[in-house]
Design a protein that fits this description.
The protein is of the alpha/beta class. The protein contains seven helices and eight strands, in the order ββαβαβαβαβαβααβ. The two termini are 27 Å apart.
């Protein structure tokens, strides 16, 4: 049984305390699923919001013949921009374009160090105060890899941004060991997003290639968000893990 419903609730006004915020997005749609409400609340509070997309998003439908890998990437990046615009986020996302389903996990792997450097420079240039990043043990390899990439980028900054970790696949797949442990030094919170829930749902729906009937319809084995998964995000709160010492 997930403990999320037991977490204390933070009001919508919590968003105003976060300052300029960057969300680390493993795949297009994770920003809307995990943080759509918070992103909308940040913008309502007048806070700048930026997004960094980690993967190229091409492997949701790898067998499509009608859409080549570059075409799939273009569709998914376009969906990301549309979803962000619906949340009133109009800054151009940073596109790292690491391989979907194979995001590197450390500096020994191709592309990791370069992406970490890009991300670090982006954080500094944008004067980011808070980073939203995937929960470190969210049950998807790319989400865990994106967390590691973010940590590499944030290490050694003159002023460490605040960090909030968000959940996507933990709603459906979390094993007990995937949930926070005392050594993680995080506390779970629920953010009240009821007033912007319609915006969040519209942003999720903007990812048309990931929601039935889809866009890449010539790949019968391709990925679509299941109805029971979507239900997890149609509720008036979002779950975050907030760092503490």
């Amino acid at each position: 049984m997930l403990p999320f419903a037991e977490y204390p609730v933070r009001p919508a006004a919590f968003a105003a305390t976060l300052g300029p915020t960057l969300i680390i997005v493993p795949h297009p749609d994770d920003e809307a699923l995990g943080c759509g409400g918070l992103l909308a609340l940040l913008r309502r509070a007048g806070q700048p919001v930026h997004a960094a997309l980690v993967s190229d998003g091409t492997m949701s439908h790898p067998n499509s013949a009608v859409f080549s890998a570059p075409a799939r990437r273009a569709v998914r990046e376009g969906e990301l921009r549309h979803a962000l615009a619906l949340l009133d986020v109009h800054t151009e996302p940073l596109l790292l374009r690491l391989p979907d389903a194979a995001v590197p996990t450390g500096p020994a792997q191709p592309g990791f160090a370069e992406a970490a450097d890009q991300l670090r420079a982006f954080v500094l240039d944008s004067q980011i105060a808070t980073v939203l990043l995937p929960w470190r043990r969210d049950p998807h390899p790319d989400h865990r890899a994106s967390y590691l990439l973010a940590q590499a980028a944030l290490t050694g900054l003159p002023a460490a941004p605040r960090q909030l970790e968000y959940v996507v696949w933990a709603w459906q797949r979390a094993a007990p060991a995937d949930l926070p442990q005392p050594a993680d030094h995080v506390a779970g919170i629920r953010l009240a997003i009821g007033e912007v829930l319609p915006q969040k749902l519209a942003a999720i729906a903007a990812h048309r290639s990931q929601v039935a009937p889809g866009v890449f319809t010539d790949d019968a084995q391709g990925f679509l968000l299941a109805d029971d998964m979507l239900t997890k995000f149609d509720q008036p709160f979002e779950v975050y893990f907030e760092h503490h010492t």
